[in-house]
Amino acid sequence: xxxxxDTRTPLVVxxxxxxxxxxxxxxxxxxxxxxxxxxxxxxxxxxxRIDDVADAYVFVDRATFEERRDExxxxxxxxxxxxxxxxxxxDIDDPRDLLLEIDVAGGRQVLERLPDALCLFVDAxxxxxxxxxxxxxxxxxxxxxARVREAKRERGEAEQLGxxxxxxxxxxxxxxxxxxxxxxxxxxxx
Length: 190
Ligand code: ADP
Ligand code: 5GP
Hints:
CATH class of the largest domain: Alpha Beta
Strand order of the largest sheet: 2-7-1-8-9
Bound molecules: adenosine-5'-diphosphate, guanosine-5'-monophosphate
Low-confidence stretches: none
CATH topology of the largest domain: Rossmann fold
């Protein structure tokens, strides 16, 4: 059955998971391989880090964030470690499906507004591998262990919300699996 690209409603795909699981790496590969998928650029009130890619976020101060939030300018938002993060309300003129890389609390809000969203929880094969990736990326062992504890909590919340879990062991396999899940979701909901 062919879909009419002029009338279909864009789908939202949510990628959540522990820091270090590989969400950013996977998100980049997904949008590079799919012209119909756009990566949403979040706003944040946190300071820019030296390892942030140039277009990682729209960096704003707290007052600017709160102003947009109070005008209803975010699809979802959350406060994490004292900083605001939010997904700008999608541009209705953009026909592409939208990929959000956000935490599970944000995923919950997306599901409340868009129950058809596809929610995926990207995870490392085990905690040891998660710590090794985080330390490899520059975290201290203490920071990495704190993230592992947070990951355990988020895993439970994601399961309750009906997220599908994707283990990022071999990167290419994880990208292929998610590409298939998005394709299947488009066939069912597009
Ligand atoms: P996240 O966005 O979830 O915090 P990143 O995409 O920044 O995670 O990945 C964390 C680190 O793990 C990076 O150094 C990345 O290159 C590495 N990485 C990602 N996927 C894999 C994988 N399948 N196997 C090994 N290392 C990986
Ligand atoms: P970081 O500061 O490491 O870039 O991101 C911290 C956390 O905020 C990560 O779990 C990331 O997925 C989440 N995050 C990034 N952007 C958003 C957003 O727009 N909304 C929500 N709810 N979480 C976000």
